[in-house]
Amino acid sequence: MNAKSTHTKLIKTEAKRLGFLSCGISEAGFLEVEAPRLEKWLNNNMHDTMQYMENHFDKRLDPTKLVDGAKSIVSLLLNYFPNENQIDSTYKISKYAYGTDYHFVIKDKLKSLLQFIQQEIGEVHGRAFVDSAPVLDKAWAAKSGLGWIGKHSNLLTQQVGSFYFIAELIIDLELDYDTPTTDHCGTCTKCIDACPTQAITEPYVVDGSKCISYFTIELKENIPTDFKGQFDDWMFGCDICQDVCPWNRFSKPHSEPLFNPHPDLLSMTKQDWEDITEETFKKVFKYSAVKRTKFEGLKRNIRFLK
User: Fold this and answer.
1) Which amino acids are annotated catalytic?
2) Which residues form the 4Fe-4S ferredoxin-type domain (predicted)?
């Protein structure tokens, strides 16, 4: 086995040990296919008030502009599918936000992986990314064979589904590269048909400015009244397009204790949510991604749903 293969095997084995679902590697370079797609999406204003999507256009498409001497993108998936869900007929939050904010959980694992690479292989430079920098996570994960981008624009994996986080290490080390997998959506349109706000405007294209997740998390102003009655009780994020996807029949519960929800969260009723105090909000969501919307933001979302 040559050095590249040995290093690749070492990295993938350690990623598994750290609890990642899977690890795929692709060669760093310009994303030719994604460039016109991203440009069109921005030109059609599908990002609405998410102005940050316009920033660093060139860096989004070429990681060698983010990390000097970048050779490889190590893409990683981390499962967050919960053991149990909120009670029925309550206001809902996305499953990914049940437990500790994933940014902290994954960043620690990525740092450990980078340290391991430096200890075992030598002087390797790189950076860890968890959806907080201009990196097209899904495109790189698809390029490295971890899944295909579904009609709902999420990454999908056979036997696993889509309830996982995507992160990457961009490093200046040449490795063996994986090849993309094929698309297995076929003629299915369940995600498109189920979206209550018609945010999936055509297969593989999501208009961010119509997405329930955008309204309940990103939008800082009032939610447009035209959408009243269309949110299906989602108060933070939305999982509809993933919940209806046939591939998510294969989702298995995660084994990351930090992703377990606060004990009170799953049993809260609509009345509990409507009466929530800032003190309870801080207690239940102390380490959660829900803090992004802040107490007032969550109250606004609940008022909109009532």
Assistant:
1) 131
2) 173-205
